[in-house]
UniProtKB/TrEMBL annotation:
<dbReference type="GO" id="GO:0005737">
    <property type="term" value="C:cytoplasm"/>
</dbReference>
<comment type="function">
    <text>Specifically methylates the N3 position of the uracil ring of uridine 1498 (m3U1498) in 16S rRNA. Acts on the fully assembled 30S ribosomal subunit.</text>
</comment>
<keyword id="KW-0698">rRNA processing</keyword>
<dbReference type="InterPro" id="IPR029028">
    <property type="entry name" value="Alpha/beta_knot_MTases"/>
</dbReference>
<comment type="similarity">
    <text>Belongs to the RNA methyltransferase RsmE family.</text>
</comment>
<keyword id="KW-0489">Methyltransferase</keyword>
<dbReference type="Pfam" id="PF20260">
    <property type="entry name" value="PUA_4"/>
</dbReference>
<dbReference type="GO" id="GO:0070042">
    <property type="term" value="F:rRNA (uridine-N3-)-methyltransferase activity"/>
</dbReference>
<protein>
    <recommendedName>
        <fullName>Ribosomal RNA small subunit methyltransferase E</fullName>
        <ecNumber>2.1.1.193</ecNumber>
    </recommendedName>
</protein>
<keyword id="KW-0949">S-adenosyl-L-methionine</keyword>
<dbReference type="InterPro" id="IPR015947">
    <property type="entry name" value="PUA-like_sf"/>
</dbReference>
<dbReference type="InterPro" id="IPR046887">
    <property type="entry name" value="RsmE_PUA-like"/>
</dbReference>
<dbReference type="InterPro" id="IPR029026">
    <property type="entry name" value="tRNA_m1G_MTases_N"/>
</dbReference>
<keyword id="KW-0963">Cytoplasm</keyword>
<dbReference type="Pfam" id="PF04452">
    <property type="entry name" value="Methyltrans_RNA"/>
</dbReference>
<dbReference type="GO" id="GO:0070475">
    <property type="term" value="P:rRNA base methylation"/>
</dbReference>
<dbReference type="InterPro" id="IPR006700">
    <property type="entry name" value="RsmE"/>
</dbReference>
């Protein structure tokens, strides 16, 4: 199913959670961007998404920098792309790298991002709200109708004990039998992939994940940085389902 707005006329996308036909008003931040930064005026055409699959086409009806009201002319609702892709990655020491991953994964079509704190993690804290802003910007730039879910960081043990409806994989650099992700993921089934920190998962963490139903997978013969591995996993699953 389509995942992005299909308007023939490409225009800037605005995002406001809760935007609807009953409440067609941009939030304060988007109103300011629309009126003060982009200099839109009464009657200018806009495209607004709610992040949940609904896209609204309309025109500026009230050009207020804190409360921009839109007169809706057309509504389009879409189903999310299938299968759902959930990437759980250990935060990198350099935040720019994990933000780069979040941006590119959003463009590719990830559904959910989680951050896991592992034994070898060099970063033990992460501001999910900062990642969320990166995701929103990427969603708007790539004209997506769905905003990926961004979860707070949790410890590895807690995460692998959570239920997940679909195939579960762990990518690691230790020895042992591994399937290539491109053949293991199959098609049509939701996928969760664990990606470890710069120092990789510990052997104990790998064993724990396998005992919880995660299958060991390979992302190829090259040794990849954390953020690269996470993006390769996301793109591989998406590509195998197109």
């Amino acid at each position: 199913m389509p995942y992005l707005c299909t308007s023939i006329i490409v225009m800037e996308l605005f995002y406001t959670p809760g935007f609807s036909e009953q409440h067609p008003v941009l939030d304060e931040q988007e109103s300011n961007h629309c009126i003060q930064v982009m200099r839109h005026r009464l009657g200018d055409a806009l495209m607004v998404v709610d992040g949940l699959g609904t896209c609204y086409w309309g025109v500026v009806a009230e050009a207020h920098h804190k409360r921009c009201r839109v007169s809706i002319e057309r509504v389009e609702r879409m189903e999310p792309m299938q299968p759902r892709i959930h990437i759980a990655v250990a935060p990198t020491k350099n935040m720019d790298r994990i933000e780069w991953f979040a941006e590119k994964a959003t463009e590719i079509g990830v559904h959910e991002l989680s951050f896991i704190l592992c034994r070898h993690s060099e970063r033990k804290n992460l501001r999910a709200d900062r990642i969320d802003k990166v995701v929103v910007a990427a969603m708007k730039q790539s004209q997506k109708m769905f905003k990926p879910v961004v979860n707070d960081a949790v410890d590895f043990t807690s995460f692998v004990n959570r239920p997940f409806a679909g195939k579960k994989f762990i990518a690691h650099c230790h020895g042992g039998s591994k399937q290539p992700l491109r053949t293991a993921c199959g098609t049509g089934e939701n996928v969760l992939v664990l990606i470890g920190p710069e120092g990789d998962f510990s052997e104990h963490e790998v064993d724990m994940a396998i005992n919880k139903g995660f299958e060991p997978i390979s992302l190829g013969n090259s040794r990849l940085r954390t953020e690269t591995a996470a993006l390769v996993a996301c793109h591989t699953v998406r590509l195998m389902n197109e």
